[in-house]
UniProtKB/TrEMBL annotation, chains A, B:
The lineage of its organism: Bacteria, Pseudomonadati, Pseudomonadota, Alphaproteobacteria, Rhodobacterales. Gene3D superfamilies: Metal-dependent hydrolases. SUPFAM superfamilies: Metallo-dependent hydrolases. It comes from Phaeobacter gallaeciensis. One of its GO terms (molecular function) is metallodipeptidase activity. It comes from the Bacteria. InterPro entries: Metal_Hydrolase (IPR032466), Pept_M19 (IPR008257). PANTHER family: DIPEPTIDASE, MICROSOMAL DIPEPTIDASE. This is Membrane dipeptidase. GO terms for biological process: proteolysis.
């Protein structure tokens, strides 16, 4: 198996510096978030911004649409950038936009971001009535065109139902095991099982609020959680979705948390005392540290083939099967 | 040379009936207008509508993006549908939308529709100051991504300047020779020359207001005009852009003519007494008559190879060179 390195979720304050760090870290592909609460037109502005970066940094990055673009990136020493949304706001109330955003390059879309959406329930709601009428139609359309259902920020019942309703495997792109770190965003056994036993993927997050001991979490502990997940769900369903939010100002955390849906501040996983991004663990400060995960997994004795899959091979195989139109 | 049949401009009230008539007429490709005055979001709704038609009629039509899609359509007995705009309204005031609409499938964009636009001057304005500052930037961007400049409804100076400024050949997708029928929309010698001598194309229109004798025009006269254009500009620069507006209600003529830019009625090429679409000539009522043009050109003695080019081969070659990104 080729030693791909794929990080399946980042939302950094992109710059030439970060693109160079991706290259230093040997990243063949990165899935980047280009929408939290943006409506369709605002999301198109974000596609436009990336088009400009592809023009400006043709030696560092390229647009990723298919798994084969990862091979192309690797052959030319670049990082393939794949697009995703952490909310269905880009499709507004219009199912026809599912195919439009896929044509523009979107490959993952969360059905919810913390709150109730038109499609499903977010993990911060007190009630979870499951997938909505529109949600069922949109999942079918996402299956048809090759836009992957991502339930990272969704509530449990909605996630399990999405896994069951979807005819193609779904993903939790960035979260950890709730049994290891009982954060609201980490996933319980029945949720992870529902996703992985249908061919879905779980990407492990380095966001400190999702880590045992937060910023003080040890690499060994993180890797042991991964090894445990491999035992429980099969290593082939696991990958990395670092949730790297490098160089973002606190105003962006606020946009992520409250968008335009509230006039009051909601601190999400933070607090009034610590409203901003927490510091990353010392062994994962930016893309240059991606290789530390490989070393960590090997150090705890995971077999090299499983490590290769987790570092990128599993996402590669998932991309190859799930980004193309059905049939 | 393969005997392609390509109609490089239609704006019909699309239906299964018309798609079947395209097949009966042996059309391998049709360039369809999907925007007159629609802004970006409204144009996206039109892309969405076509996506639904591709889903509903997969045996009759398919989305066309590249010249190779015409071969694919031909092999599978379908018509490849290519998209274009008769106005730059879909890109609003945002140059970043040029690449976005190309990604969605747009392949031709008029810089103006009769009136002054942000980019150039339309043929109904009394003054033509030429290509604007934004126009120069947008032409460069259209060249870069592979979106063809179409000047069918533009004023003379703007058209000649566009041909000169553009680094790739441009097109007049639907118009006839002004010397043959002196309609405002038909093109004078210096305009046609500026376009064709730089590798550009002229598509001949069957819209009665552009014909000598209007609805009473004879096929022989139409074909003689084409033969004359072949002598003057070279047959390899000529094709068909029928401007077929089949089954459209008069309300659509009004939308084409006044959009949202005027509260008063503007009759364009019509008049208060005859505000609607004029009847098509008896030898060109719909797509099933496309072959009549071939017969007509052969009947006046044009050489078969030139006829093959005009019926579609020339547009095929033009598509192959001008729809892909530069460099």
């Amino acid at each position: 198996m080729t030693n791909f390195r794929i990080d399946n979720l980042q939302y950094a304050n992109w710059s030439e510096k970060i693109f160079r760090q991706m290259r230093e870290g040997g990243l063949d592909a990165v899935h980047v978030t280009i929408s939290y609460h943006e409506n369709f037109r605002e999301t198109v502005l974000n596609f436009e911004q990336w088009n400009r970066w592809f023009e400006q940094y043709p030696d560092l990055i390229m647009k990723g649409q298919w798994a084969s673009d990862i091979d192309k990136a690797r052959e030319t020493g670049r990082t393939a950038i794949f697009f995703g949304f952490q909310n269905p706001s880009p499709i507004e109330d219009d199912i026809g936009l599912v195919e439009i955003v896929h044509t523009l390059g979107a490959r993952f879309m969360q059905l919810t971001y913390n709150n109730q959406s038109l499609l499903a329930t977010g993990c911060y709601e007190s009630e979870d009535p499951g997938i909505t009428r529109m949600g069922k139609q949109v999942i079918k359309e996402m299956n048809r065109v090759g836009l992957v259902v991502d339930m990272s920020h969704s509530a449990d019942r909605s996630t399990i139902e999405a896994a069951e309703i979807s005819e193609r495997p779904i993903a939790i792109t960035h979260a950890n095991l709730h049994s290891w770190a009982p954060a609201l965003r980490n996933k319980k056994d029945d949720v992870v099982r529902a996703v992985t036993e249908r061919g879905g993927m779980l990407g492990f997050s380095l966001y400190p609020h999702h880590l045992k001991g937060k910023s003080e979490c040890k690499l060994e502990s993180f890797c042991q959680m991964i090894a445990q997940a491999a035992d429980l769900y099969g290593a082939e369903h696991l990958g990395i979705g670092s949730d790297l939010c490098q160089d973002q100002p606190d105003s962006v955390v606020e946009w992520m948390r409250v968008g335009r849906w509230s006039k009051e501040i909601d601190y999400g996983e933070g607090s009034a005392a610590a409203p901003g991004f927490p510091p990353m663990p010392s062994w994962y400060e930016d893309n240059r540290h991606f290789g530390n995960l490989e070393d960590g997994l090997k150090a705890i004795g995971m077999n090299p083939e499983e490590v290769t899959g987790i570092m990128g091979g599993n996402w590669y195989r998932f991309y190859a099967k799930n980004f193309t139109p059905q049939g």
